[in-house]
Design brief:
This protein is of the alpha+beta class. The protein has a single domain, classed as Hotdog Thioesterase (Thiol Ester Dehydrase, Chain A, Roll), CATH 3.10.129.10. It has one helix and three strands; from the N terminus they run E-E-E-H. The protein has a three-stranded antiparallel beta sheet with strand order 1-2-3, with helices on one face. The longest helix has 20 residues, at 59-78.
Length: 82
């Protein structure tokens, strides 16, 4: 598995996880799944707390950020929190 933080908002972050399987005999690697996890940062009292901004340096990081923004917008729209 490989994971990366794709996006951060005020108190939440999206982590993208790519799962791959490797054949131990041939060494062939294949993609088996992808998931996106949303986590909320909490303080010692269990209340949401701000997260630091994400520094986007590469085109890949910028692409993942943009795609995560779209997923977040859709998710909020679906639960009625535009």
């Amino acid at each position: 598995m490989n994971a990366s933080i794709n996006y951060v908002h005020n108190t939440s972050m999206e982590i993208g996880v790519r799962v791959e399987a490797e054949n131990p005999v041939s060494g062939q690697v294949r993609h088996t799944g992808t998931c996106f996890l949303t986590h909320v940062a909490v303080d010692k009292n269990g209340k949401p707390t701000p997260v630091p901004p994400l520094k986007l340096e590469t085109e890949e990081e910028k692409r993942r950020w943009s795609e995560a923004e779209v997923r977040r917008s859709i998710r909020l729209e679906l639960i009625g929190r535009s």
